Amino acid sequence: MSIPKEPRQLMINIMYLVLTAMLALNVSAEIFNAFKVVDKGLKKSNNVLDENNSHLPPEIAKLAKKKDELAKYAERTKPVQELSTSFSDYIDEIVDHMIQETGGYTEEGELKGYKNKDVTTRYLVNEGKGSELEERIHGLEEQFLEFIDPEDRERLANEINLEIDEAWKNSDKASWADFNFRQMPLLATLPIFSKIKNDVKSAESTVLNYLMSKVGGEDVVFDQFQVVMQAKKGYVIKGEPFEADFFLSSSASSNSNTQINVAVNGNSLPVTDGVASYRAPTSSTGVKELNASVTVTNPVTGETKEYSNSFTYEVGERSASVSADKMNVLYVGVDNPLSITAAGISSNDLRVSGNGAGINLTKTGAGKYNATVSSQGDATISLSGGGLAPTNYEFRTKIIPPPVATLSGQEGGEMGNGTFRAQKALFPELKNFDFNARCEILSFNLFRVPKPGTGDAVAASNNGGTFQAGARNLIDKASPNDRYLFEDIRVRCPGWPTSQKIGSVFFKIQ
Description:
Blueprint: H1 7-24, H2 30-64, H3 71-101, H4 118-126, H5 129-137, H6 140-145, H7 150-157, H8 176-181, H9 186-215, E1 227-231, E2 235-237, E3 242-248, E4 259-264, E5 267-269, E6 271-272, E7 275-280, E8 286-297, E9 304-316, E10 319-324, E11 329-331, E12 336-343, E13 351-355, E14 360-365, E15 368-372, E16 377-385, E17 388-398, E18 404-406, E19 413-415, H10 417-421, E20 427-429, E21 440-449, E22 458-463, H11 469-476, E23 483-492, E24 500-502, E25 505-509
Parallel strand pairs: 2-9, 11-17, 19-25
Antiparallel strand pairs: 1-3, 3-7, 4-5, 4-8, 6-7, 8-9, 10-12, 12-15, 13-16, 14-15, 16-17, 18-20, 21-22, 21-23, 23-24, 23-25
Helix pairs in contact: 1-2, 2-3, 2-9, 3-9
């Protein structure tokens, strides 16, 4: 594959070669972790390439509109991206197939079969998938070069190098696939595939940057003008001045001799470097309208044209508000996100404080706060500063409502015999509660009532939500028409002063 020119990428490649050699010496599990680090670095590099490549086609399309003969370069961007995406998807299919065959991932996101050598040897070597990959790589460079003008292909070929490494021919291996994949642990092959994808995305980047160069570098010709207003503030407070700049969006330094005259509501404004600044007092509230006109004289033809547009802005008075993002109460024991706004007041000048119910406020972003409270009752949030008189907002504070006991999300009722015996624990669910809180079952009593005529009711006590020996024994005996009752269920939720009992749950076995 290609030799990278970027130092960081070259370092990753060298690391991979060293790790491969060490793996052949049967070095310990630290080497597997190093392969993960290399693969992670390659994937990060691929993500950066994807991000950069995604921005180029819109810019190429925009620049190509300057001249009809440039349209052909914009038309090439989509097939270039499709070629790269198609090949990357093909690589992902190969990797996903091997990962699935070796058991997928653990709950912690680790590969279950990371040491597996059978799948790589069988699938990539014996079954020929590696040779198929080799065939697809052959000729890929030529496919990318087809989007380059013939006179530029020889120069760009040095930057698009997607040829197969022929080093395997100097070994005792039968093929490129045999050389790279036979008896290689699954984890050790992942950086190879990430490296192939990296080369393809780099080729895509080279071609897209070439197309960008073909549509750029031309002199911009003025053919349309748009009057633009840039207000210092879109919403101003009564008594403050409204300030704005008016200019042409198509102005350019190459036309520095262009004469521009600006008028707002019939009054001429001085123009400096193509920009006219406007300032007006605000003595009343409401929506205000400005009518702006710009007269442009072409320095070459002497032709004069006038462009106009209307703009509005609003004058208001200082005000503030506080709203709970999730409910109109604050809950004890959980984070309560708040949005706090104060129109016309800088966030640097706004002072926010809280009082009552053990409230504590923490700023988490622009206009965003988090409130925690430690007891039930009433809390007050106060705003002041920036010309705003102290303003109080009252909130009620409550504890988290009692949860509902469930098995697999089911609140009692009928349940299949096999499904019921497969249950591992009784869970407390907070229904219609949008906060991030988790309750805990401390204990419960379980009663099994066998179907009529087969025995007497049997009870078992259980500590915690997970079924212990007694409860487990009763559940394992479940058969059709049996009835189970979970009662005296005691739970504890964040912010509760003491544990509580919640309602019973009844199941009929099908």
